[in-house]
Amino acid sequence: MPAWAAFLGLTVLTLGVVLAFARRSADSIDQFAPTDAPTTESTAIPPDDSSALFPRNATTNRPESPEPVLRNPDATTDSESKREPDIVLTPVAMMANVAFTQGVILFGLVLSAWYFDIPADAFGSGIGTGGGAAVVVGVGFGIVLWGANELSTTVADAVGAAYDERVRELLAPESIGGWIALFGVVLPIIAVSEELLFRGALIGVPEMGFGLNVWVLAFLSSLAFALGHGAQGRVGVVVTGALGLVLAGGYVVTGSLLIVIVAHYVINALEFAVHELPAISI
């Protein structure tokens, strides 16, 4: 007999950990990959001597320069010795981190579903379009959503609400092997893990187990989906939330988890292929 309450409780706990980790990741990106900001000089050089406090030709009332302090060039100050080494977020490290964390979430969901005897149908498996037809529908759905996503970010840029693209740029590989790993391993893991959590576990399971309103569940899961992408900035949260709501709607209407998994993968893959792949010298 399925232990619906136990599985849902563990899923909500997992969601809390995911959101906390997403917040921590956003802070790390702000710290180690800050946005470009214009810098200003703290002092200005007067245009001529007449406005200077000590004109260049003045010889009276000039304060004496202090004697230079000599120190061993090999010596380091306490502040220098205590300073933490610079941390560089490389694409390999970013991909490994994402693949590992998303893989752990995926493994945990599958294991808990098996342990609590949750039927596969509750996640959207075996309902609606399946097999090859689901893949075709998912690809088409993903292309349409990617186009809408591009349009929304273009509009946001036009009105001065820039979309934070640092996460995508940090994940962009620098080699052929890296791109193969991204398209063949990392992005599939992301699509399966996030759709299983935000659509299957947070919409399908509560609806089947407790008879909750599926559209309310779709809205709440999409809100959580948006908050989980806080590293993309405020505009990114809004766009991702809207995208998640449409994916949730597609999941509810078709009853197929596979369709939204494929669509999710297509959206992410096109994002990298269009915006990052042309800039890489292969």
Automatic annotation (TrEMBL):
Signal peptide: none
Spans annotated as Disordered: 31-83
The keyword tRNA processing is annotated on this UniProt entry: no
Membrane-spanning ranges: 92-115, 127-148, 176-198, 210-231, 243-267
Keywords, comma-separated and alphabetical: Hydrolase, Membrane, Transmembrane, Transmembrane helix
GO BP terms in the entry: CAAX-box protein maturation
Domain of life: Archaea
Pfam family, one: Rce1-like
GO-annotated molecular function: endopeptidase activity
Leading EC class: hydrolase
EC annotation from Swiss-Prot or TrEMBL: 3.4.-.-
Designated name of the protein: CPBP family intramembrane glutamic endopeptidase
